[in-house]
Amino acid sequence: YSSNITDILSLCYPHLGNSSCRRIVRPHSVYVLLYIILSSISVLTVTLNLLVIITISHFKKLHSPTNFLLLSLAVSDFCVGFIFIFQILIMDGCWYLSAGWCVFYIVFGLVTTSASVGTVVLICIDRYIAVCDPLHYATKVTVNRARMSVVLCWFSSALYTLAHLDNMKHPGGFNSCIGECVTYTHPVAKVLHLLLTFILPVSTIIILYVRVFVVAVSQARAMHSHVAVVKRQGSVKVNKSELKAARVLGVVVVVFLCCLIPLDIVVLSARFAVVNGSSVVFFLCLYYFNSCVNPMIYVFLYPWFRKCVKYILSLQILKSGSSEANIM
Known about the structure:
CATH topology: Rhopdopsin 7-helix transmembrane proteins
Subcellular location: Cell membrane
CATH class: Mainly Alpha
GO molecular function, one term: trace-amine receptor activity
Family: Belongs to the G-protein coupled receptor 1 family.
Keywords: Cell membrane, G-protein coupled receptor, Membrane, Receptor, Transducer, Transmembrane, Transmembrane helix
Strand order of the largest sheet: 1-2
Radius of gyration: 23 Å
CATH superfamily: Rhodopsin 7-helix transmembrane proteins
Pfam families: 7tm_1
Shape: globular
Helix content: 55-70%
């Protein structure tokens, strides 16, 4: 009798019997701990990235191509903060919302993360041109081009996600039991997804930043020895601020890769087209946690960001003319 009670309690929907999915049974203290951790990360991610969004949007001194790319990354990270809410809902492996909300959760997560990957690639391209071709940076990388690149990145992410997900046509049609939220993609689409969101972006990011690192090191040595021109493939001296930006964004890129690669390796190991989200929840949370780390990197490495946060928290941005403040 007690075993029957245990079996019933381990179901997502006990009144549905064997047609219901099984819950992941954990001690109550573990559930409370996970709830506190995920809720804290969610609030912190939303708050910190909102500060980045307000900062770059409000202060005109920060309206540069590089900062517009950071703004795009902050928007995607801001959205990830809300994805944590869904992660809290499926802590026990059960999906209690409708099939429509399941589709929304999957699409919202994929669009946001795809846009995030695309934006990091754009940041790498921006730093590559700034460091490796500084003479032509102002003409090649403009504010309008940065904006158009960001819009194209988000539009492509949305179009790609909506096109390759079969869940859009059959919400809940691929669930093996009631209380499940799974993603189904055709095997060909799965290979394409791997290529477009992992292999190509990561390869591009690594190649570009290795090149940036090599040039930045040579330029730093040149400046240290008071040499105005570095005789290395005819490259010219790079502004110190560009090198500093490259280092800061290099930290962002490295942290991003450390959070992205484990998740993709786990997804690659899946042998079937249907992947249960709860089986990769830890690596998903690790990847999502990157969205909370990015603004922390700005806090520690960008003095202007710390100054802007003081402006915001003290409500000085409500004063007329505050957008013209010299915060650099």
